[in-house]
Specification:
Largest sheet: 2 strands, antiparallel
Strand order of the largest sheet: 1-2
Mean pLDDT: 90
Number of strands: 2
Shape: globular
Strand content: under 5%
Order of helices and strands: HHHHHEEHHHH
Number of domains: 1
Structural class: mainly alpha
Length: 254
């Protein structure tokens, strides 16, 4: 016997697409400036300003948060995670072959892929914790692990508890943020602390899929940004080859 109440379809969240699109375009701009500065020797002083790194991390965090929210819309996060991580590994090998001096060892695609798989495996257990408790907890854990790549359990270098160097010297824990001296990766987002941003997004995503967000959240306000937000993976994969081709035309070399 059919239920008398129709199942309400999930509405697409236009604002999520727009924020994700804005973040991916900011990333393209950042990589374009990075290439000009470090590959072609064109001085861009803003790249060395401390505040610019903070702004970069804010936009990266926004992208991860929105991606965490999107997990609540997906029927198979494990599959998405495997595909994303696989594409990240392809990029790692391509850069190892064509640009060995600019390795990508645990970039945003690696991070996103592993985060999706972690969420897929632990979803039932995670969702037993109310969002009102889990989101502040994620914020606290983010701050506690923010300085791990700098050698500290705390929010920044020199603030918190200094961790034993033996953990870092192992050399195999860089996906978690424990990096050796001299570690280099042109795109690097370790699981600690960024996983907590992703997970916090997944909790807030529950309100979105349950149609509990404000009405403006579901409307599309800027169609070009929304389109970019729907194709972030393709933009990420293709933007560097396009930039390299453009710079080849301008400078005559890569």
């Amino acid at each position: 016997m059919e239920s008398s109440e129709a199942v309400k379809p999930r509405r697409r969240a236009g604002l999520m697409d727009e924020v994700r699109g804005f973040c991916i375009l900011c990333m393209v701009f950042y990589h374009a400036m990075f290439d000009l500065n470090y590959t072609y020797g064109i001085s861009i002083p803003i790249m060395f300003d401390g505040w610019f790194g903070i702004v970069r991390d804010i936009f990266a965090g926004m992208f991860m948060f929105i991606s965490g929210m999107a997990c609540r819309y997906s029927r198979n996060n494990a599959k998405r995670g495997i595909q994303c991580f696989f594409l990240g590994m392809i990029i790692t090998f391509v850069f190892a072959f064509f640009a060995p001096n600019a390795p990508i060892l645990f970039g945003i695609l690696h991070f996103m892929g592993i985060s999706m798989m972690i969420y897929a495996i632990s979803e039932k257990q995670l969702l037993k914790i109310p969002a009102k408790v889990a989101v502040p907890l994620c914020a606290v854990l983010f701050l506690l692990t923010r300085g791990i790549s700098e050698g500290y359990l705390g929010p920044a270098k020199g603030i918190g508890i200094a961790l034993p160097r033996v953990i870092y010297d192992a050399g195999l824990l860089f996906p978690l943020g424990f990096i050796q001296s001299g570690f280099q990766s042109m795109d690097y987002f370790p699981l600690l602390p960024w996983l907590f941003v992703f997970i916090a997004g997944a909790y807030i995503g529950g309100y979105a899929v349950e149609d509990k967000m404000p009405e403006f959240f579901y409307k599309t306000h800027c169609k070009p940004l929304a389109v970019c937000g729907r194709y972030t993976l393709w933009i990420y994969i293709l933007h560097q080859p396009i930039l390299m081709a453009l710079y080849l035309l301008i400078f005559g070399h890569i």
